[in-house]
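Run log, item B.
One chain of 118 residues. Sequence copied directly from the ordering sheet:
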Amino acid sequence: MARDLEAQRAMNSEQLAQRVKMGDHLDIAREIEHFALFTGRKEADAARAQLAAEGFATSVKRRGWSKFELRATQSATIEAHEVDDMVCRVFKIVERNHGSYDGWGGSLAYPTASGGTS
C-alpha cells in the first residue's frame, strides 16, 4: 500500500498508542520488521543493499508474478522518536529505489519477573 511519509508517521503514532493500551513497554528493545514492495528485482536488491549498509538484516522474496517483497529487521526500542527516525530512514531508501513502504511491526515487549524481557 503506497502512502506518503507523513501518513506513515501518523500511523506510527496510532500503532504506538494501541501498543501502550496493550501493555507494551516501548522502551524495551525487540526485533522490528519493515516491509516494502517493488515491481523490479533490481530495485528491491538495491534497497536491500542500502538497508544492509545501515545495519538492517534484509531479505527479498518474490511475491506473486510481478512483485518483490523486501523485509528489513533491526533490534530497537519503539519509543516515538526512535520509530519515526527508523521509519524515515527505511522509507527514504525504499522510495529512492522506486518501492512502496508497506509498514512495520514487531512483538509486544513486557518486563519479566527476573528483570529481563519477554
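Observations after the first pass:
- The radius of gyration is 15 Å.
- The chain has three helices and four strands.
Flagged for discussion on Thursday.
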